[in-house]
Every structure is written in structure tokens, then in C-alpha cells.
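User: Predict Sugar porter family MFS transporter's structure from this.
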Amino acid sequence: MTALRLSPTGATARRVYGLGALAGVLFGYDNGIIAAAILFIPRDLPLTPLQKGMVVSATVVGAMAGSLAGGPAADRLGRKRILMVAGAVFAAGALGAGLAPTVEVLVGFRFVLGIAIGIASVLAPIYLAEMAPARDRGVITSLNQCTIIVGTALAGAIGFGLAFTGAWRAMLLIAVAPAVALIVGLIGAPDTPRSLIRRGHRAEGRAVLERLRPDEAGAEFAEIEAFEREQPTGPVRVRLSDPWVRRLVVLGTLLAIFQQITGINAVVYYAPTVLTDFGLSDRTALLFGFLNGLLNVVTIVVVLRSRVVDRRGRKPVLLAGLIGMSVALCALGAAACGLPTGSVALLVIAIAAFVLFTNTFSATWGPVLWVVLAEIFPLAIRGTAMAVVIVFTWLTDFSVSLTFPVFTDLVGAGPVFFAYAAAGAVIFPIVWWVVPETKGRSLESLEHEFHSGRGRLRRNR
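Assistant:
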């Protein structure tokens, strides 16, 4: 396996990459810890089935609001400033949820947490992509998904560790510490050079480039400046109405929907519930979630070290992911169709299918979607366009997660998993034909190609 070799990085680069990654940890932890906490919340706060669904899904609704607000705000005020706001909202949401005296207050603060998750889902990949050199951008932007998985694995570890005491409040309150660390870390960190230059802070933008990669700063600054001089000005609504921009937003929206419609978050949210149907105890199911989370981390680290996203390209990785996930979903569907039998063989098949599905996602659609989205949109409205697209990510996540228990109650889990697999089969030819390859290109050259029509959406390279 090829070792992970990035461009030489100084303290500034390591710091900004670490801060962008920390936002991903918070995203993953606050999104994932509810799988364990929801098992114990009813001991203190009795929940109806509807209230249980509201506690779980409140973050998704909040994330839609956070995405819509965070993207445009970051285009106007800068990436760093809005990431700091996200850190403050993370801290407030975790504190309020952990101390909630009633179900209604808990749902409200879970919604607040969702706002922070939505902001982070837009800005963390943009912050990383705009800080990274072109040749390493795939790997560095993938750190976002890597740390989301780390956060999810950490949630699994803490959930399992505290399951013996049922301390669900502690599970939620732990997230306050990394949120405060994000705020403190960002105080002295720079904004992205592209955002600074775009907002008229040329000297500051060049200074950031000098701190990130002094040997290349002059040439990169000249490219960004030359590109900016060519750009039209005007309200965001005008730029979003441009046909070439609309095509990119449609592409991004489709990819965001595709990522969720194969059922990844339904599988993650309800994995303990499904595995208990196969005969596992609650604690054993949580232990499986923790161990699988660790394996997810190993998987994405291997992907990063192999640099497959930058060497092979974005599209081949997406296509390979669809094949692997669809195979796993078919196996999971077949096992679920055999319930209830108490069969050890079916349990083994189900566990293997869960592992294959989640780890394939972690290696492919998990990181690569964020890489592509951070690359294809024009700088002037990158935050706004990402916000529009990511709202559809959360909307699809909400729809799939909400309907999973309904459909499994109506037809059983097996047909639902087969339906997710069928979605993957339908998505494959669409990705094959319309997703452009973006590896190894500067963000400015990609934007110029899309604007000129030479990078139009078609099958290429």
C-alpha cells in the first residue's frame, strides 16, 4: 500500500486541517450518540413512539435549517467566522440536551444541535478544500468524512461504555468539550485565502497562502487574482440563475440524494434495532456498533493512505461504491427475509452484510461526495450552492430514516433493503454518464471549464 505523502505542511496547514477535521468529529459524535442514548432516555423521560422519532430526527430538521443559513452567511462573512458560530451552537445544543428536564426541551436542543451539524456539513469540506493544494485536495477534503466516522466511532465507544449505567445525559454532555476546543482553536486560525480574496482582503489572503505553502504562494495568488478579475458581480440569485450554475446545482443535488437513498443512515440509526431482531441483546448490538465503527475508521484511513481518490479519480470510486453497497444490501435483504428463525447463519450473514455496507460507504460515497461538492461550485456562491444541495441530503436522510420503520412494519426489513439495493443499481448509469472527473485540477480551472462549457456534464475521462 502506498504511504500517505502530502505536500510539505507547516504548523499553519496542520492546524487548519485539524480544525476542519474537528468539526467533522462533532458532526459524527452528535449525530451518532443518539443511537445509544435513545435506549436509556425513556428511563428518565417516558417517550411515546412519536416522541422517540422526534428526539432522533430533530437534528436532521435542524441540519436543514443550519445548512440553508450557514452557506450564504459564509459567502458573506467568511468560512472561519461561521465555523466559530457552529462551535458555539454545538456547545449550547449539547449542554441543553444533556440537561433537558422534559422531552420537549430535549427535542428543542436536539434541533439546536442539528443547526450546528448543518453548518458543519456545509463549511467543513469547503474550509478544507479551499485550504488544500490541488494535488492533495481529494485526500485533505476526505478528512472531513474520516473524522465524521471517527466521531461516530467515538459515540459508539462512549455509548457502549456508559450503557452499563444508562447515563444518557453524560453521553450527550461529553460533546461540549470538543465544541469549546473548536471555538478556541479557530480564534487564531486564518480564514481561507480564496474567501479572503473574494471579499476584498487581498493582502491577508496572500499572507495565508504564504503561511500554508510559501513555495507556491505567488503563483497560486496570481491565479486566484486573475480568475477573480474575470468574474461578474451581482446578487447571488443572478449567479444561481445562470444555466451552467443551475446544471452544477442539479448535479450536486442528485449526488446528495443518491448518497442517502441507498439507506446509509437508516442502516446506522436502526442497526441495533435490526440486530436485536436477529437475536442479539441490546448491549451486544451496541458492542457491534462500536467495533464496526472502529473498522470504519480503519477503512477510511486505508483509503486516505492509498490516495485512491486523487490517483484513480472521484467517479471510479463512486461507481465501485455503488456495486459494493448494492451487493451488501442484497445479502442483508436475503437474511432479513428469513426472519424470524433464530438462525445463527442468518445472523452471521446479516453482520457481514452490515460490515460490508457501512465500510464500503465509508471508503467511497462517504468521503467522495464531499470532495466533489466542494470542487464543482463557483467560488462566489460556493457556500450558498453547498447549502442548497446539502438541504436535500438532510431532507432525503429524514425521509429515508422516517419511513424505514414504517415500511419494515408493513412489508418487513428484507424488501426494504432490496429496494435500497435497487436504488443503487439505478444510480450507477446516471453517475457513469453525468459526473465529471475533477482530480488534480485547481478550483479556478474547474470553474473556468464549467463556465465555458468545456466541462459540461457528460461522460468524460
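The two ends are 25 Å apart (CA to CA).
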